[in-house]
Amino acid sequence: MANIYRTMREWMKRKPADRARDEYVLRQAYYTVFSGDQGQLVLADILRRGHIDQSTYTAGDPHLTSFKEGQRRLSLEILNLAKVGPDEEALIKAMMANDTSEVFSK
Predict the structure, then answer these.
(1) What does pTM read for this prediction?
(2) Which residue among 4, 42, 103, 104 is least packed, with the fewest CB closer than 10 Å?
């Protein structure tokens, strides 16, 4: 996936098999980055900053609520791209304990 697509339109013109291969390569890259000790430390920090274990609702401030929900959504997307193998229950327990070692099954 050495190519960086300038626009979504350019990416969409690619054949589905090429897009699927790109997605696979990207997921493997996320896994590689976040599966090491330092990567797990960074992932735990991203999850903490992304309000994974707490409500994003802020009473009286819908803008802050939306902002926090955006942070949470991005954190969940990163986690989804980085994970390989665990079932959802183990993943949730690991997130709540700030222990990302359970996220990476080898």
Answers:
(1) 0.66
(2) 4
